[in-house]
Design brief:
The chain contains 16 helices and eight strands. It is of the alpha+beta class and 469 residues long. Helices cover 60% and strands 13% of the residues. It is rod-shaped and about 120 Å long. Helix 3 runs antiparallel to helix 4, helix 4 packs parallel to helix 7 and helix 6 packs antiparallel against helix 7. Strands 1, 2, 3, 4, 5, 6, 7 and 8 form an eight-stranded mixed sheet that branches.
Length: 469
């Protein structure tokens, strides 16, 4: 009996450093292979910095109002001026921001934190209250560092957020050492506190304005580091989700190169394939180059492929512009459907408008070809409207299929354009369905001529066609 590994084996726990290394490798691989990922990161950074600067400015204005209310004047003037400096630093950060390592961005970030540390420690020069330096340091101004940490999550990488946490904790501890070195003698204050609370050491220490309360200062720095670490992991996961989304956009863009955009939209919004087989009325359009076999026989393979690419590009653009689905390329032609995968009230008129637009597109292409000394192309377009069977066919490799007599008749109408010497032929069923469309008008059929009694191979009765010369 052999051991078998489960298909969905649970992941083993990873140390944080291992997780970082794996996610870094994954991110670098995605960016290297996906230009959408690089542009997504750049766009995210740019938008994030703009949002961070706006949030920062609003926060500073709110703080200014609060300080103006609770701080006596003229002492509040000092803080107002510093708030203006913080706003200017934020604008400078927006100006120099970029994706990846940016030295000036880090310098400005350090200026933020250093200035905030000075505000927390150095007494206000406009305040005439002569408080002990330790008392100034003990004010709950440390909470304002969280404003900068929150702003960093909007615009910076997870490493920068960690940097904010480490720098803030380090500056706060340096400030603690500086205050401890330069504070005045605490003897009188301590004696007064001990006399007030002779039997309670904790109250004595807390009541002493010259006491640094080192344990609480360390606790604040530790909590800040923990929060910075958690936010860094959150931002890291968000960036990975952003890269994954960019990967999905790349896959969707690649699908759109091979499938019609409306089919891609349907597939991207459903967990399952287009699945159910159904019958519905749709418009089917066929178009190809008249006399292409003879044309290709006298030209190099490179010239033939170039002609086909330009021809398909011109017609494909009109299919998508008229809300059609490009079903398939057929060598020198194509098949398009209108009303797939979801039928709409404008399907028939969209198909007729597309046929007319294809003829105009070929006229424009021929103008370019004649200017370059190349032979002009002739196109034949056939349109029919009627019931067709829609659904996925295949096993694991699925193809969205449109089959039925309507498809066959549309193909034969297109073939009939040669014997009728016209550029486009539309069945009377398609014209009647188009006239019932809400947006239909007389210009849709301008230039079309009615031709009764046309025999279509595989159809027992003759059909009425409308042709455009």
């Amino acid at each position: 009996m052999t051991d078998q590994t489960p298909v969905h084996a649970p992941r083993r726990p990873l140390w944080f450093s291992s997780w970082i290394r794996q996610t870094d490798d994954r991110a670098e691989t995605i960016i290297a292979q996906n230009r959408h990922a690089a542009s997504a990161l750049e766009r995210h950074k740019r938008e994030g910095v703009e949002l961070a600067v706006r949030a920062r400015t609003i926060a500073m204005l709110v703080i200014a109002v609060f300080v103006g209310i609770v701080t006596p004047w003229p002492a509040a003037t000092y803080y107002m001026a510093l708030i203006v400096v913080f706003i200017l630093i934020g604008l400078a950060q927006q100006r120099v921001s970029s994706v990846g390592h940016n030295r000036w961005e880090l310098v400005l970030l350090f200026c933020d934190l250093a200035l905030m540390t000075i505000i927390c420690v150095v007494p206000n020069p406009f305040d005439d209250r002569n408080w002990p330096l330790a008392f100034q340091y003990r004010f709950e101004t440390f909470i304002y560092f969280f404003v900068f940490l929150a702003g960093a999550t909007l615009a910076y990488t997870w490493r920068t957020i960690i940097t904010v946490g480490v720098w803030t904790a380090a500056l706060w501890m340096l400030a603690l050492i500086a205050v401890w070195q330069f504070q005045e003698d605490s003897g009188p204050w301590r004696a007064a506190a001990e006399a007030k609370y002779p039997n309670d050491v904790t109250l004595t220490v807390m009541s002493d304005p010259s006491s640094l309360l080192v344990d609480l200062r360390l606790q604040g720095a530790m909590v800040f580091l923990i929060v910075a670490g958690i936010l860094a992991v959150t931002v890291r996961r968000f960036n990975l989700l952003l890269l994954d989304q960019a990967g999905l956009e790349r896959e969707r863009a690649n699908l759109a190169r091979y499938f019609s955009p409306n089919v891609v939209d349907q597939l991207s919004h459903n967990d399952e394939p287009l699945k159910q087989v159904r019958t519905q009325d749709i418009a089917v359009l066929f178009a190809d180059i008249v006399g292409f076999t003879s044309y290709a026989a006298h030209r190099s393979p490179e010239e033939v492929i170039d002609t086909l690419r330009r021809f398909h590009a011109s017609l494909e653009a009109e299919v998508f512009r008229h809300n059609g689905t490009l079903d398939k390329y057929l060598g020198d032609g194509l098949m398009a459907t209108f009303g797939t995968p979801v039928a709409g009230p404008e399907d028939a008129v969209n198909a007729i408008r597309c046929a007319r637009a294809m003829c105009a597109a070929i006229d424009r292409l021929n103008t370019e070809r004649e200017a370059a000394g190349e032979q002009p192309l002739r196109v034949g377009v056939g349109v029919h409207y009627g019931p067709a069977v829609l659904g996925d066919i295949g096993g694991d490799r699925l193809e969205y299929a449109v089959i039925g007599n309507t498809v066959n008749i549309a193909s034969r109408i297109e073939a009939l354009t040669r014997s009728l010497a016209v550029r486009a032929a539309v069945s009377d069923a398609a014209v009647l369905a188009a006239q019932a469309c809400p947006s239909a008008d007389a210009s849709d059929m301008a230039g079309f001529k009615r031709r009764d009694g046309q025999e279509i191979r595989g159809v027992d009765e003759t059909m009425t066609l409308w042709t455009l010369e």
